[in-house]
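hey so i finaly got around to running the thing on SWIM-type domain-containing protein from Gottfriedia solisilvae. pasting the sequence first so u can double check i didnt mess up the copy paste, my clipboard has been acting weird all day
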Amino acid sequence: MLQRDLNKDVIYELSYSLFSKLSPQNMRDAELVESGLQLYRQGQVYNVSVRDGRIVGVVEEADQIHLPILHINNHDQNGCDCYEAPPCQHQIALLCYAAASFSLVGDIMRKFKQSSLKSIPNIMTGRQLLDQMNIIQEDKPKETVELFEQKYKEYIEQQRTSFYQDVYFVYPLYERFYHGLLNQQPRQEKEKLQYQLLAAIFTMNKMVNQIEIQSTVYDNAQLPREMTMLENQIEAVSRQLHNITGGSVSHQYEDVLRQQLKALLFDRKLCLIPRYNSFRHVYKELLNNQKKLHQDLEELSKLPEDYYVDLGMAQFHFLLKNDDDMLAILKKYSQNERTIYSFTYWIENLRKNNETERLSKFLPLYYEMLLHYLQHGNDEYAKSTFAKHFLSHYEYNSFYTNQTAGLEVVYQALLPYSEMQYTDYLMHNQEYKRWTELQMYLYSYQPEQIDKHDLQEAHKHDPQSVLPIYHHMVLYYIELKGRSNYKLAVRYLKKLKTNYKKLKRIDEWNDYIHYIESQFIRLRALQEELRKGKLVNEATSKS
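ok and heres what it spat out for the 3d tokens, dont ask me to read them lol
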């Protein structure tokens, strides 16, 4: 059955995508593959089929049902409802079932096991192991980074000699290399956190390097999940270290940390936001020393002009509260899309610390960058996100400082992204005429989207202001045709009649209803609804 929808090449590609993330030398990986093979051999895989470019099936294990999925083309979207780190034994069992249709189970298992036929790595003596542990336990950050480099070279060599060279490099780099480093962390709390921070920064640097090498595989706009996890780890550990040490660490550790952070920010090009955020998190929590920051600024000022160097200087100025110097640097790059992504970090920090005076300085540049991005950017989701982010902080600052005069101008400039905020603003200030104009601008083609509660509120307090909406609604539903739409048109005609009576403009109402009656005289169902609604005289209508 599967032979009709699959072929041998598909099986080999799927086996490559799964096994390239595993190593037969790793006991856990070997047991995982063996578990998947046994599930297949025991007949625990059934209802397998190919649907929409995916192999789907049911795998039963220990009285539990699992639903693994293998994508024929998009292998990175393979999944399973067991939520184990991919690949899981259920995916391997499903692969074995599909491979059996071409008698390839033994072949793919043999290829997986052959990847272990390589030179045996050097085994450390007891003395070497003790020396390594002493480096880690003591405050020797320089030697710790050298150890990381040694481990990374061994890891790269292992990848190169593997039968399945890893195309999907990011996942194993995080899962095997980074977690392998963490397996050797010290036990003392402070030393452990310092070790974790260096390991995370080091791994992120190497990960970005690999992404740059394989830039055809990775899209910079779609950050790998592992990159975000490393950034979160760096932020959390920096904060924990600050709480334990008060932001004071040894001079040796400071120097190595600075070196690693500068390499992360200045030596790489892709994945800017997690790199820059990590740089800022650590400097804020652990390297926020005025004397050292001035030295760093002086050092960077001597380097050739560069975007990443300027971002580093901007963060130093921010920590020193030299806002004018910082904003002058960023203004040079206000039309660079990456700058607006970086800018939100500072805005959120200022609001969190309630530094409204400084926030007032930052918001105009944010507004300038946002207007440029809304006009020239291509990502509609990002446009909406930035507009909402800016409005949230601009409103907060305006109300907190009691400077609300410019709110309406900003709302108008950011339409349609400011639609909800501007609507609420006009309703709160009882500007019903301008509220009506806004609804006609936004929803002239889909007037049914106008908020009925707001419309009723405007109808109640200013009946004249909503007349254009009711007129538009009447014609809109008549043009849609059908008795159900005619009934809705009659409902709004009744509201118009009520409003005209309140305004003592009954002659205008009579002229309007006669116009509707005569203009659409051929629409028999509409004429019947008009008579049912007692909007026209039946005798006159028949004549």
